[in-house]
């Protein structure tokens, strides 16, 4: 169902993929809209317990797309450096495919907390208060990962 990587010599193993998922600054979520067009949007995310968590509004382009078709792709580039004299780029990237589903109850709080831990670790007390205030207005989605590939160019 999913394609194999063409350049096997650049393929990452599972541990390397996990490292990128944990350390990436942001990712690009791709969905399909009601007219069949792809929609890619950068977003903050947290990787925890084998899932990608992100938050969003209750309605909007991204949310509407996912509610109609929850199959998504998510791309993270952890590092890149252009080498102009060699006409190439050094990078680490991961692309994953899965289904986006809503996290509810304690999992919703855990997803929000994972985002606070990743992006605002020095403000955990304030972050927990923020989660309590935003709990009813925010939607937390998670990507159930079905397939992932990682590629490294050195």
- CATH class, anyone? Mainly Beta
H and E string: HEEEEHEEHHE
Mean pLDDT across every amino acid position: 92
Q: Strand order within the widest sheet?
A: 2-1-5-6-7-4-3
Structural class of the helices, strands and pairings?
alpha+beta
Q: In the CATH hierarchy, what is the architecture at level 2?
A: Roll
What sort of overall outline do the alpha carbons produce when their principal axes are compared? Answer: globular
Count of the domains: 1
Radius of gyration, whole Å: 17 Å
CATH homologous superfamily label: Electron Transport, Fmn-binding Protein, Chain A
Key words describing this protein structure:
alpha+beta; 7-stranded antiparallel sheet; Pnp Oxidase, Chain A; 154 residues; 4 helices
Overview of this structure, please?
- The protein is of the alpha+beta class and 154 residues long.
- The chain is 29% helix and 42% strand.
- Helix 3 packs antiparallel against helix 4.
- 25% of the residues are buried.
């Amino acid at each position: 169902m999913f394609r194999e990587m063409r350049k096997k010599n650049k393929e990452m193993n599972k541990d390397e993929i996990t490292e990128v998922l944990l350390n990436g600054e942001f990712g690009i979520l791709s969905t399909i809209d009601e007219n069949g067009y792809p929609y890619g949007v950068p977003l903050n995310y947290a990787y925890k317990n084998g899932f990608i968590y992100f938050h969003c509004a209750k309605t909007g382009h991204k949310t509407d797309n996912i509610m109609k078709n929850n199959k998504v792709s998510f791309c993270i580039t952890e590092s890149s450096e252009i080498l102009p004299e060699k006409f190439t780029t050094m990078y680490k990237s991961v692309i994953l495919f899965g289904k986006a589903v809503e996290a509810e109850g304690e999992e919703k709080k855990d997803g929000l907390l994972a985002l606070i831990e990743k992006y605002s670790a020095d403000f955990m007390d304030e972050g927990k208060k923020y989660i309590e205030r935003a709990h009813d207005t925010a939607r937390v989605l998670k990507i159930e990962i079905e397939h992932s590939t990682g590629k490294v160019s050195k």
